[in-house]
Amino acid sequence: MHNPGHRFQAQDRFADGAQYIAGRLTKGTSGRMHAVVDPATGEEVYTYELASTVDVDAAVAAAREAFPGWAGATPGERSDALYRFAAVLADRAEEFARAESLQCGKPLKLTREFDVPGTIDNIAFFAGAARHLQGQSAGEYSGDHTSYVRREPIGVVGSIAPWNYPLQMAAWKILPAIAAGNTIVLKPAELTPLTSLLFAEAATAAGIPDGVINIVTGAGRDAGEHLVGHPDVAMTSFTGSTAVGKRVAEIATSTVKRLHLELGGKAPFVVFDDADLDAAVNGAVAGSLINSGQDCTAATRAYVQRPLYEEFVSRTAALMASVRLGDPFASGTDLGPLISHAQRDRVAGFVDRARGYARVVTGGEIPEELKEGAYYRPTLVADAPQDSEIVQSEIFGPVLVVLPFDSDDEGIRLANDTPYGLAASAWSRDVYRANRATREIKAGCVWVNDHIPIISEMPHGGYKASGFGKDMSAYSFEEYTQIKHVMFDNTAVARKDWHRTIFGDRP
Length: 507
Ligand code: NAD
Prior knowledge:
Blueprint: H1 10-13, E1 19-21, E2 24-26, E3 33-38, E4 43-49, H2 53-72, H3 75-91, H4 93-104, H5 108-129, E5 145-153, E6 156-160, H6 166-179, E7 183-187, H7 194-205, E8 213-215, H8 220-229, E9 235-239, H9 242-254, E10 258-262, E11 267-271, H10 277-289, E12 299-305, H11 306-321, H12 341-354, E13 359-362, E14 379-382, H13 389-392, E15 399-405, H14 408-415, E16 420-421, E17 423-427, H15 431-440, E18 445-448, E19 463-464, E20 467-468, H16 477-480, E21 481-489, H17 500-503
Parallel strand pairs: 6-7, 6-9, 7-8, 9-10, 11-12, 11-17, 12-15, 14-15, 17-18
Antiparallel strand pairs: 1-2, 3-4, 5-21, 10-20, 13-14, 16-19
Helix pairs in contact: 2-8, 3-5, 3-7, 4-5, 4-7, 5-6, 6-7, 10-11
């Protein structure tokens, strides 16, 4: 299928273990082994021992020890370290791309052109932003005092990441946290630890002090919950499913922690009848299939105004069927497998159940020639009722559902009719129509005449059941810093005016 020498040799590279604590790789101590599987072939490519709660304690202790020095570094020193970090990653870009493609099954063109350069850009953005962290300037608001606001790091951040974009999710969690002077313990998904480990190693090579970034690769139920509930962890930042996010929120709330949740999505893609149909069809296929549809912002529900509906369905189905599935390491491949055979079967289950109430226009099957891998054909489902499972639930696979609408009011109402609110797009040549959609669709991001692009300067985060708080951009510092009011007395008198409330008129 491919030359294994050109892939990523995970077993050799991480022979020392899948935990990164206080600047070095170590083995987990849970006694439970876990395998990273290449989803394109089903082969185990790396076996490691999962982190125990004792390993989590060690990582939190390392982060706690590193905190005073890192928090006390000047913004300029932290910024310099982050610029060096970006340079190390740029030097190692090909290794990162290969590791990410191996563990996720992403085509190399995606990891080379999107995951890795996006991460380098994110580091460079936070290297700059680290020098612009400010509190509000001073003022004499009471007349007798000078007040100012300090913006301070919170302490040790405990973060949990999903498997769909392991490198980018690690970067989105780690960078704003450390740029603001926090230290961090990140738990990647058990299926995909490799690029989080490479990321932490690169940080050390760039001179970021030991203990500032720690990685514990363990199971959600023990290592994950232990990290969230840990008394020395000041904040929890979680990206993953809404179901697990609720559990994480319960634990974080019961230990009174700052909480940032980036959860599931079910993005609508609303095509008004004056839209450029070519652009909408291309956008729907690329926007629903990116990363094999395992993208929290992927287009999942296309609502198409009645005059364009039938043509949209037939052209989108034809374009979807032309997308080439194959070996992620081969240059002719457009789409790789899903993350695992279990995820593929879960996706197939949604489509199979939908056959009872909707029309599978294309796809809906496991390709026979690629059946050792976790592949699933790009799938278009039409005519499903709005309240059906396939329209309402997050599938997280290469499946787009398309439904018609009549009035603009109806299109916007249907777009808002799921529990989620992460991302959406509106397609129209009429600026007033499009602008109305951007105002009325309840989502953390609304694109107009595009779907998917993200940029380091702009925030990413959900409305409704998609969570709260922002990743990327300067807005992320609102999550990773706390605000302190400092108030100086300006009168220099021992008995202040307001002491009357205690002492009355006594001198
Ligand atoms: P998941 O919720 O199953 O797992 C996410 C992480 O949580 C993993 O590291 C897992 O080990 C850990 N975990 C599991 N149970 C836990 C527990 N009880 N306590 C603590 N941690 C626990 O999600 P997934 O399947 O890895 O990823 C897919 C999901 O992530 C989708 O729902 C997708 O929409 C979401 N996602 C959201 C965003 C966003 O920015 N909103 C980005 C990427 C992915």
